[in-house]
Structure formats: structure tokens, C-alpha cells
Amino acid sequence: MKRTGPSNPLLKKTISELGKQEAKLWQRVAHELERATRKRREVNLSKLERHTENGETILVPGKVLGAGILKKKLHVAAWNFSAGASAAIKKAGGSTLTILELVKKNPKGTGVKILG
Q: How many alpha carbons fall within 13 Å on the CB side of residue 65?
């Protein structure tokens, strides 16, 4: 069977835009997003709490899930968020972004930590 890649039009657009960026970080994220859904990264809030510092910008090339407690103020960009994860991040004083919003804010990718 021939591999067809992602079928979601928004995901295709995101991958295309990331591939056009000069920074290697965004090209790596595009490659991660091209993976099959079952192989894409999933990160729980508990992992964000354990592996980050307050105020960091975190990028998850996959989905952020709501298991765990988050007390740190983080700026988290991901392909997708569960409703619980999004609410918990905002409750802790942080913000959620799409990956393309993060690219517009930080085209060079400086200070971005990939987690997953």
C-alpha cells in the first residue's frame, strides 16, 4: 500500500509552511507532523511540569493531553490540545498557541524547547 501522508487540510498547510522556513527547527517539526497519527507525540501536563522551567516556550509536535497538574506559567505550542489541557495551561497563567502562530512570533525558533 502506498503511503499517502496526512489528509487534514490544515495539517497539510502547517507542514507546507514549516517546510518553507529557514530555521532547521521548523523543518524538523514539519517532518514530525508528517508521521502517522498513531506515531505522533503525545505529552501530558505532568511531563510539562517535570521537564520545564517557569516562563519557557514549549513546542509539542503532536497533542497535549490533560493528565496531571500544571503549576508553571508556560507558553505551549502544539498541533492539538485536549480541552482539559488547554484549560489547565490557561489556569496556570500560561498560553496555548498553534504551531504557525509560534512561527510568526519567533521565525528563528530561538528559545523554543521541543518536548515529546
A: 10
Residue labelled with grid coordinates 490533560: 66
Count CB atoms within 10 A of the CB of residue 26: 24
CA dist., res. 87 & res. 102, Å (int): 19
Structure-block grid coordinates of residue 29: 517539526
Name the residue ranges covered by the structural domains of the chain.
9-114
Q: What is the fold, at CATH topology level, of the domain defined by 9-114?
A: Ribosomal Protein L15; Chain: K; domain 2 (3.100.10)
Secondary structure (3-state) at 61: strand
Are 50 and 72 in contact, with CB atoms under 8 Å apart?
no
Helix axes 9-20, 24-33, angle to 10 degrees: 160
Query: pTM of the full predicted structure?
Result: 0.90
Residues 84-114 pLDDT 10s: 999 999 999 999 999 999 999 999 999 999 9
